[in-house]
Amino acid sequence: MTSAKRMMKAFLLIAVLGSGGWLGLGALETRAVYPFDSTRILPATLGVKAREMTHVHDNQTMVLWVAQPRARAPVVLYLHGNAGNLATRAGRLQRFIDRGYGVIAPAYRGSSGSTGTPSETAITGDMISLYNSLGDYVPGLNPNAVVIYGESLGTGVALKLVASGARPAAVVLEAPFTSLPDVVRASVPRMTPLIPRMTSIWDSAHHAEKLRAPLLVLHGTDDTLIPIAQGRAVLNAARSTTKQIVAINGAGHHDIWRGDVLPRIWRFIETYGRR
Length: 275
Known about the structure:
By secondary structure, the protein is α/β, with parallel strands linked by helices. The protein has one domain (3-272): Alpha/Beta hydrolase fold, catalytic domain (Rossmann fold). It contains nine helices and eight strands. The chain has helices at 3-17, 25-33, 90-98, 120-131, 153-163, 180-187, 204-207, 228-237, 262-272, and strands spanning 51-57, 60-67, 75-79, 102-106, 147-151, 170-174, 215-220, 243-248. Strands 1-2-4-3-5-6-7-8 form an eight-stranded mixed sheet, sandwiched between helices.
């Protein structure tokens, strides 16, 4: 089941429960927004040339997949989307590694063996702590030299991290949204009355106003979960002097990594992420 269908199923369940069901909304919202797979799989098991490492923050343990860069090559901090786990991104992460990039891919709370319960507050705190400790995982790495790659939900995490003070070398946002309430309005408009009770907001359009680093937005023209208009709005909100959007004709939410798109991703990362 896709992340879009999971989200719709959960919100429809909330609607069926009615106002009395809001006593249990917290757990339902968590399941809708953060439907992670908790299965812990070592990267080598999937042929990914990375090490599993951990980062401890707020008495919780976050699982990381880490690959060291070749000399002077970019380092990518990869922030995954809201479905599956790190294993689901194994092919992507190995593509970065094959190009010589360093990779640091954290698993949010409840994903891939990471402990704790995910929430906007918890994930934000974890990512700030990790960002400030990146040199512990790639020796000598200045956090400001990293390229942040955010995928779907990870775009919100990336922009919240920037709004919290991170100053990366560059940012790539794949299918960004203006806010989670806006995603609900676009994909399940019948649930709009429930928005005031949401606790996971990820107000990306607002957070993007803090972004000054070069920005690349990737968005499918046929994305029905997060319309491309939201990607354009995030791009327009960013204060980056260098920014661009790649509108991928005919692509939806999950098929952006096409052969005609990948060279543009590599070129952007290698232009702004060289150390």
